[in-house]
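Entry type: protein chain
Record version: 2
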Amino acid sequence: MRKIKFLCLLFISLSYQLSFSQNPSVCDYLEKAQQVQTRLVQYFEKYPHDQHKSYNQRLLLLQLAQKHHLPLKLPKNYLALDKIYDEDTLYHKYFERLINPKFKPKSNLQKDYINSHGIDHLLLWSLYSDKLAWDKECENTINQEVIGNEYNLRAICHYALAYYWVKSLNPKAQATTLQAFENQFEKWEKALYEGFKYVKGFTDSGIEGLLAFVFMGKFQQIPQKSLEEFLYYESPDGGYPWDTEKNTSNFHASLIALWLVSEMIEFCS
């Protein structure tokens, strides 16, 4: 009886681990990713953009359309629509570099960098790593302990995004700095797998967790169960929700969903 009980528990444990196993190939989902991308492009074409005030999110959508050659028609003067959220006042002065490599900020970059902290500081450095020095604040930010929960899916996504931006924007980035990020990858992956036990792949935080693997360049480590939850989610308007409690689509969740499938398609094509 004890042996049977042990075998049953072992089977349950292995089944659970397999449900979060790595994909044989993330590219097996290429056709589905293309379908989701088409659906999301249609979602954003119908979106009432004058009602969405986040400059950063508008700019990221514009960058996605440019980088991945999406057939997305956006309003004229898209970045100048109405006012922006107060929370964007630091970064809206600097994010334009994502769509214009020659962009020169009018603000005091060094001063804003010194006065920023945590993820804000790290992301600002990643956008201008050719002009700003890697410092202790950056190092302490990526060295923070992370446990597998919803908050840290988001945090790890932003740490990994900094790595992704540095590699994209600064080909001359120092190998030692990139290594500082890569030394954290094993820890971050472990926390991501743990976090996905509690978070659905189609929610905003779930999509950020999936994107973290993409930003680290670890497409094949994306957990299959969470990826399928994301790809096979359907809503009437084609977008993605903030969380499992809300059925309505959310701009940010849909934006990062478009980012995720676009990176998948580029990787697999």
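Comment: Residues 2-268 form one domain.
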